Amino acid sequence: MKQYIGFDVSLKDTAISIRQDGKRIWRGKCASDPQILAQIVRKHAPHAERVVFETGPLSTWFYHALTAAGVPAVCIEARHAQKILNETLNKTDANDADGLAQLAEAGFYKAVRVKSFDAMLTRTLVGARNLLLTISTQLSNQIRGVMKTFGIIVPKGTGRVFDGNVRELLDGRDGLAQIILPLLEAWRDIRKRAAELDRQLLAAARQSQAIKLLMTIPGVGAVTAVSYAAAIEDPANFKTSRAVGAWLGLTTRRYQSGEVDYDGHISRRGDNYLRGLLYEAATVILTRTHASNQSGLKDWGLRLRERLGFKRAAVAVARKLAVIMHTMLNTGEAFNTSAGVTA
């Protein structure tokens, strides 16, 4: 007498479908609150085997709250589920919940690992810092662009240099100053808030032995190390270190059908931001010439650059970095600059 449940979650309401022995035994809708949903599960499905819902904005909260309430929650890959749910003739929330319940009963789904609240808090800190820096850059570009319209070219410079140059050029131009100075003040305030988040990020890096270990790699700074550690959480989440490269979308896609068989570009699945950080770190490794940057990884990347070009070599080094960083977290050993690297 096992029951299988599907939740189609939206911001306001959640559609519920409960199946048993291949048949739907109950269907309904309630507010999107894990506590209310847990009560409904206990009432209508006391022998619940699996409760399935898709990834989404509320999935982290739902998963941890339902699990704490004793509900056997399973978060599944939305893209995988949608390929099946789209076969339904009529697209409704109730029908989607039915489809998810059928997936739960058949076991035909791809479960995803839901990050802990601590990991999500760290990722939120990194994301907020990155957002403020992006807004700061946009504001400075806007100021430069507006002033160019009036024939005023702001010299190159950042921070206080940029602020001083703008104020100096606005001297005697009261009409334009009334427009630009509020933008400049907003730019300064955003930079201050970004600096505050920077300090929080560096404090978190100093308190973690794992992050300090990752920062022994040339080109890997606090932001990359913190982001990687928060994404991986526990090295045991991956069976092998090589799996991390595929998880981050840094491995090539393959298409094979009949006589056709070829590899394409990298899949670009997973965390876009972390993948970009690893690519930046790989670029630093390949281009920085300081003696402290010499390593077997750099030598391997430079050989690839001669054969494949810079961009492909940088992607390969980024993938190798992801593998090496996972191995370091597993073993607790610092980066070995003299170790050779194989493809």
Automatic annotation (TrEMBL):
Residues 212-290 form the Transposase IS116/IS110/IS902 C-terminal domain. PANTHER family: PUTATIVE TRANSPOSASE FOR IS117-RELATED, TRANSPOSASE FOR INSERTION SEQUENCE ELEMENT IS1111A. One of its GO terms (biological process) is DNA transposition. Residues 5-149 form the Transposase IS110-like N-terminal domain. It holds the Pfam family Transposase_20. GO terms for molecular function: DNA binding; transposase activity. InterPro entries: Transp_IS110-like_N, Transpos_IS110, Transposase_20. This is IS110 family transposase. It comes from Sphingobium terrigena. The lineage of its organism: Bacteria, Pseudomonadati, Pseudomonadota, Alphaproteobacteria, Sphingomonadales.
